[in-house]
Design a protein that fits this description.
Blueprint: H1 4-14, H2 16-23, H3 25-28
């Protein structure tokens, strides 16, 4: 079975800057690509 979640995350991390430039150009202007850091795990905080 194809792991779509893993493939999507890999695609998005590889082309994140291009994704922002295409869909959110206003946000991309403020982005410094050299400072990007993708986290390995999801972080959940208890907000209750």
């Amino acid at each position: 079975m194809i792991d779509h979640d893993r493939l999507f995350k890999e695609l998005l991390t590889t082309f994140f800057v291009e994704f922002l430039e295409l869909f959110f150009p206003e946000v991309a202007r403020y982005l410094e690509p050299s400072t990007l850091e993708f986290l390995d795990k999801e972080v959940f905080t208890d907000i209750t």
